[in-house]
Design goal:
The protein is mostly beta strands and 116 residues long.
Length: 116
């Protein structure tokens, strides 16, 4: 079963990101670190439009993949970003280009990272 991970804005602090984890439609945990493989990104069009129009917080974007044992982030991994008011899709933080499907994503207390 695929695992979905999204940033939990209510539980996160400036120095420690918290992620909500779901398997199927069931919420199962809140974690500071998790590693997914074969990761695809989902951004719900109606949720994106609602956030842009009303400026509200809601869950409409997440990563979906196979959970594996949490691993250390490789030294050459790059940060992944998401801003609904700019690109509206998951991008490489360094150059704001879409990151697309990725082999492995490392979700850490300082953000999500992957190798290009």
């Amino acid at each position: 079963m695929k695992t979905r991970v999204h940033l939990n804005l209510h539980k996160s602090q400036p120095d420690a990101v918290v992620y909500s984890v779901r398997r199927g439609s069931n919420p199962v945990d809140h974690v500071n670190a998790i590693t997914l493989q074969d990761v695809a990104w989902h951004v719900g069009a109606s949720g994106l439009a609602n956030v842009r129009r009303r400026g509200v917080r809601q869950v409409f974007a997440w990563a979906k993949g196979d959970e594996v044992e949490t691993q250390a982030t490789p030294i050459d991994a790059e940060r992944i970003a998401f801003n609904p008011f700019k690109e509206g899709q998951f991008v490489w933080a360094s150059d704001r280009t879409p990151c697309g499907t990725l082999a492995t994503v490392y979700f850490t207390t300082s953000g999500a990272y992957a190798e290009r």
